[in-house]
């Protein structure tokens, strides 16, 4: 990135020394702007690929009541971190569908700052959303298909 700044300074010096060279300076500034945009784009692509490698190694499972002893907190969410990175926060929308239906019957956002080390697993039980019914389309929560969406994972 330093080289882009140096080119910009050189172009400004040329313009200050020779005002008739304005066309050259404008062309040079355009080239510098294009190079900056290209550099930012290339860095974003590298960052996205690195993020995908980490996120592909994190497994999230959601289930109802099987692992939770407190009936007020029946939703069990487990993260398995098989990546080299440490998870320092996560949030997601927990959802459930009645079997044979596409519209969700349960939805609740969860968020935690629990640190999950590399190559480890962490599970926690979450409170039932008070606005949700416990019987939908003739099925109870233990019959629903549990999942998540909109997961955001903070890692380092």
Detailed description of the structure:
The chain is α+β, with helices and mostly antiparallel strands. The chain contains two helices and six strands, in the order H-H-E-E-E-E-E-E. The chain has helices at residues 2-17, 22-55, and strands spanning 58-64, 75-81, 87-97, 104-112, 120-126, 145-155. The strands form two sheets. It has a three-stranded antiparallel sheet, with no helix packed on it. A hairpin with a 6-residue loop joins strand 3 (87-97) and strand 4. The mean pLDDT is 83.
Q: What's this, in brief?
A:
With 156 residues, the chain is an alpha+beta fold. The chain has two helices and six strands.
The description of the largest β-sheet is: 3 strands, antiparallel
Q: Helix fraction?
A: 25-40%
Q: Describe the strand arrangement of the main beta sheet, using strand numbers.
A: 1-2-5
Report the radius of gyration as a whole number of Å: 26 Å
First-last Cα distance: 24 Å
Class from secondary-structure proportions: alpha+beta
Categorize the overall geometry. elongated
Q: What percentage of amino acids are in beta strands? A: 25-35%
Low-confidence stretches: none
Number of strands: 6
SSE pattern, N- to C-terminal: HHEEEEEE
Quote the average pLDDT: 83
* Number of helical elements: 2
